[in-house]
C-alpha cells in the first residue's frame, strides 16, 4: 500500500497511540471533578495546553481545544462575528476555502452580514494588495487558509495580516490545517488560527483554535465553564493531553521530513514532465507536501480507481460524472481549463513516504495510461 | 394457563389451483419457508394438504410474520392460538389474547370441522361475542370490524385466529426453473429480480464491472442490491464479469453511436454463455420500452438477435413511476439512486442510435475477435454468494 493522501488524514504515531491508550485506562477522570482522579486529569490537560502554547509562541489561555478543525473554523468565524456585530458587518474571505469556512460564511448571511469573496490569483493565492483594495472601515474579519489543500499554494499571511491590522477593529483568521508542522506558521500575526491533530499523525476528533486574548467569541456549544465557557461539554482530556506530544514530535521532525518530501516532489515533477499529456498543476513555489497533477488521457475518478486497484491511495476532488459537471473550484479559479479540473488528482506526501514509492507511482501511472488512457 | 399467539397459519396462494404438480409446489414452499426461518431455531413446521402451520414456541410472532410474509407462494397468514376444544377454554383464551381495554369493533366467525362438538357454530359465535361484550368496550361490526375473530374447532384442537396478514403472492421460488438476471445497479433491474422470483423462478445475477472506469463503490452497491432482493429466495449467486477489456475494444472498434448497442449485444452473449454454464433457462433484464436509446423495440431486436435463449423483461411495459414505486416497496430504491457510475454510463455517447441496424452491428463486430474476449469474460467471472443477513464485523 502506498499512501499519498496525507492531506486527507494520517496514521497515528505509535508514541501517541500508546500514551493515549494508557490515559484511557488510567486517567479517565473528568478534569472538572474535585477528587484525585479529576485533579490529575485537570493538571495533565493544563500542562498540555501550556506546552502547546509554548510551541506556538502564544499564551496558554490562547489555546482552545475543540473536536475538529471544522468546529474550530465555525467557532472562529460564527463565534467571532456574532460577538462583534457592534464593530461592523463586513467580512472578507477567499473564494477557495474549506467547506467549514464557506458554509459558516453562508450561514452568517441570514444575520445580515455582508460576505465578500476574494478571488485567488493564477498562482492560487490571495494578494495583500487585493485585501488592501477590498478592506473597509467596517470589515471585522478576514479569513484565508495558510496553505491551499488542493494545490499547496502558500498565502502570504504575514503581509495580509499587516493589511488586516491596519483596521484596528478587524481580526485575521487563518486555517492552518495544511501548513502547521510543515512550514513555519507565524501565529504572532494571526488573531485566530485553526489546527487539526489528525493531519499531523495525531488523533481524529482532536483539534484546536488559537484565539488571541483580546479576541471575543460567542460559544457555539452551550454548556459548562470548560474552555473558558467557549465550548461546553466534558473535556476530551486524553485526546487533548496527547495533542501536545503529537505537535512536539511533528515539529521535531519538521526540517527532516520537509527535505525528504521535497525530494519526492521534485522527482515526480521531473518524471511527469517526460510523460506525454501530463500536467503539473501545483506551482513551483507550492508546499512540497502537496502535488496536484493531471493527465489528458484519463479522468480523475478513473485514475483514482486504477491507482486504488494497484494499492496506491490518492485524492480526486470530485467525480467527473457523465451526468453532472462537478470539478475542482480551486483549479477553475486559478484559470485552469475544465478539462484539467476534471482530470486532476492530488498527491499529498508524509513522513513515511519513500523515493522507492515515488518511482513505483510513476511506473504505475505509465502502465495505467497505457492500458486505460483514451483520446477523449 | 396463559394464552398467547403460539402458531402461524399459512394459506397457499395461486398454487392451490394447480393440479398434478400441486404436491411438488407445496413441498417447495415448505422448504422455502423453512429456509427463510433459519434465524428462528425453535420453530416447528407442519404441512397439511391445504395449509401450513408454524409452531412458534418461544419466538417473537411479529418477527416471524415479517420473514414469512416475504416468501412467495403464500396468499395470507394469520396468527393463531391453539386451545383445547372446549367452550370454556375458548372463552378464556379470547379474553386473554385481545386488547380488550382499547375501543375496537369485532365480528366472530366460528366453524366446526368436528361436527361432534356439542355447540353449533352459530352458538359459538354468540357465546364468544357475549363474553367479549360483557368484558370490554368492544362493539360488534359485522361489515368492517377491526378484528375478525375466526374460531376453528377441530377434533384434536381449536384454533382462534384474528386478521389475515397478506402474503407475498406468486409461486414458491424454485418451481419455475432458473434464470440469469442482469443487475446493473440502477432502479429497474432489482425490480426485475423481484418479479422473476415472484413467478417462482430461482435467479442468479450477472453484473458487468469495468474497473477502473467503474469504482469498487459501484460494485459494492450492486452487492448490496443483490443482498436486498436475496431474501425472497434465501441466497443468491452474483456473477461479476470483468468487462473492461471488451468495453475498451468496443470503444476502439465501433463508432460512438453504436457503442452502447454493441455493448449490450456483448453483454447478452456473455449472459448466454453463463446461462448455459449454470443451466439457467432464460435471461432477464430490467429493460423498459423506450426508456433509453438501447431500449427501443428496434434496439431490442438487434440486441436479442445474438441469442436464442428467451429474454424476459419483467418491467418492459411499466412506467418509470411504477417501477420506482415497486423498488420502494421492495426496499431497493434508496440504494439504487446512490451516485456511482456503472459500465453503462461510462462511454455514454452524445447521440446513441435509437434505430440500430443489425448488418451494421455485425460489420463493426467483425473488426476484432470478440468471441475470444466474450469467452474470456465467461471464464474469468467472479462468483459471490450473497446471503440476506449482513455479515457483521467483529469491530462492532
TrEMBL record, chain A:
Q: Which UniProt keywords apply?
A: Pyridoxal phosphate
Q: Name one GO molecular function term.
A: catalytic activity
Q: Which Gene3D superfamilies match?
A: Aspartate Aminotransferase, domain 1, Type I PLP-dependent aspartate aminotransferase-like (Major domain)
The superkingdom of the source organism is: Bacteria
Cofactor list: pyridoxal 5'-phosphate
The record, for InterPro entries, names: Aminotrans_V_dom, Cysteine_dSase, PyrdxlP-dep_Trfase, PyrdxlP-dep_Trfase_major, PyrdxlP-dep_Trfase_small
Which residue range or ranges hold the Aminotransferase class V domain? 2-359
This chain belongs to the protein called: Cysteine desulfurase
Species of the source: Floccifex porci
UniProtKB/TrEMBL annotation, chain B:
InterPro entries under this entry?
A: Rossmann-like_a/b/a_fold, ThiI_AANH, ThiI_fer, ThiI_N, THUMP_dom, THUMP_ThiI, tRNA_STrfase, tRNA_sulfurtransferase_ThiI
Annotated SUPFAM superfamilies: Adenine nucleotide alpha hydrolases-like, THUMP domain-like
Where on the tree of life does the source sit, at the highest rank? Bacteria
UniProt GO molecular function: ATP binding; CCA tRNA nucleotidyltransferase activity; tRNA binding; tRNA-uracil-4 sulfurtransferase activity
Write out the entry's keywords from A to Z. ATP-binding, Cytoplasm, Nucleotide-binding, RNA-binding, Thiamine biosynthesis, Transferase, tRNA-binding
Q: Which GO terms describe its biological process?
A: thiamine biosynthetic process; thiamine diphosphate biosynthetic process; thiazole biosynthetic process; tRNA 4-thiouridine biosynthesis
The places in or outside the cell where this protein is found are: Cytoplasm
- GO CC annotation terms, alphabetical: cytosol
- Residue ranges occupied by any THUMP domain in the UniProt entry: 62-164
Residues bound to ATP are 182-183, 207-208, 264, 286, 295
Q: What does this protein do?
A: Catalyzes the ATP-dependent transfer of a sulfur to tRNA to produce 4-thiouridine in position 8 of tRNAs, which functions as a near-UV photosensor. Also catalyzes the transfer of sulfur to the sulfur carrier protein ThiS, forming ThiS-thiocarboxylate. This is a step in the synthesis of thiazole, in the thiamine biosynthesis pathway. The sulfur is donated as persulfide by IscS.
Q: What is this protein called?
A: Probable tRNA sulfurtransferase
Provenance organism: Floccifex porci
